[in-house]
Structures are given as C-alpha cells and as structure tokens.
Write a structure and sequence with these properties.
Oligomer: single chain
Helix content: 25-40%
Largest sheet: 5 strands, parallel
CATH class: Alpha Beta
Number of strands: 7
Strand content: 15-25%
Structural class: alpha/beta
CATH architecture: 3-Layer(aba) Sandwich
Shape: globular
C-alpha cells in the first residue's frame, strides 16, 4: 500500500491564545499528527503578522515586490498539500488579519499567475478546509444570508482563484464566553473526526469528491 505523506498548513487567526479557535486548530494538528501527517502552524497573532498590503506589493506596469515576511511565508507554505484555516466570524466575516494574510501571501506569483486568457491558478490540486465559529446560531446565519455570502466569497471564490479543491467548512455556532466544557469537547471531537474522514485514506486522491459543507 502506498504511504500517504501529507503536509497541512494550519493557519489560525485569533488574538486570544486560549480561545476556542486556537483549541480547534490544535485539535486538528494533533489529529493530523496521529495520522502520521506533517503540520506547519501559522498563528497570525502570535507571529504579529502585518496584514497591510503596501502599494509596492500590488502588480502593475512598473512591477512589484513582495515584502520579506511574505517571501518567508510562501517559502514555508510552498509544499503544503492542505491549507486549513481557523478563525472566528466578526461582523459575519473573517478577521481583517486573516484577509490581509490571504491578500498578501496568496497573491500573484504564489497562488495565481498570468495566463493567456487572464489569471491562472497555481495551487491545483491542493486542498482547502475551513473551521469557523460565531456567537450567533448557525441557523440565524443561514436565514440572514450571511452564511451563503461568506461561502461564496471566502470559500468558493478564494479556492477558485488559487486552484484549490475546497473540501469542507465546519462552522460552530453559539460559541460564547462561558461555553460549557462538554460542548467544547464535543466540538473538538467533531474536528478530529472531520480530519480523519477527509484525510485518513492512504492516497490523497481518495478524499472527498468536490466541495461540501458540514455543520455539527
């Protein structure tokens, strides 16, 4: 049997190192390690990542130049097979720091390049999976349209531009201060089971076919 060696880029964004979001990322990384997979953690707040895109980083007629921090991130992520994002929803969108990371790191020359008919994705056939949380119930997000909007902008569109196969988006609603430990434990178990379901096979090509959404 072929041995499946996979590298997961665990990209987590929350200012509190003891947050539910960070706990979810750690549960994911631990589950990946138990499968014999490699992980590289990019904890954006602990890295003090600068999300601001400078004018000189924007491709244009006079050229452009990614800053040193972006070059370093791209070097670290260049051989990742799976990009796993972990974040809370603020105003029903991912944090600004995460959006800045996506704009700067997953930009021209890394996630996409120039083709005959426009931009060409560069990260195919790698995979993307997301884990998010909110204080609002998931049902409210669906009814208000916020869930569909986020899925289109931060899942489908981003994955499409980069050429990533979008695997899953696991969202936990009702995550508020004082959440019961047993509820947290159940959510973390969902994270472990999700990783095993999608990446526990012996070959990367045997994973889930196409994008899907899972809600606990």
């Amino acid at each position: 049997m072929e041995v499946w060696s996979v590298k997961h880029a665990v990209i987590v964004c929350h200012p509190n190192a003891q947050s539910f979001t960070v706990a979810v990322a750690r549960a994911y990384a631990d589950a990946a390690a138990k499968l014999g997979h490699e992980t590289i953690e990019r904890d954006l707040y602990r890295l003090n990542f600068d999300p601001r895109l400078d004018a000189g980083e924007i491709p244009g007629p006079r050229g452009f130049a990614p800053r040193a921090d972006v070059k370093m991130e791209r070097a670290l992520l260049h051989d990742a097979d799976v990009f796993a994002f972990f974040y809370p929803l603020w105003l029903n969108t991912p944090p600004a720091m995460l959006k800045g990371y996506m704009e700067r790191v997953f930009g021209y020359g890394f996630a996409y390049g120039r083709g005959a008919g426009g931009n060409t994705p560069l990260l195919s056939p790698r995979k993307m999976i997301s884990f998010s949380s909110s204080g609002a119930p998931h049902e409210w997000m669906v009814q208000s349209g916020a869930w569909d909007a986020m899925r289109k902008l931060f899942d489908a569109h981003f994955a499409g531009v980069c050429g990533l196969q979008f695997i899953d988006h696991v969202h936990f609603g009702h995550v508020t201060p004082g959440i019961r430990p047993d509820v947290v434990a159940a959510h973390l178990q969902t994270v472990r089971e999700t990783l095993t379901r999608h990446f526990g096979s012996s070959k990367i090509g045997e994973n889930a076919n196409g994008a899907q959404t899972h809600t606990p």
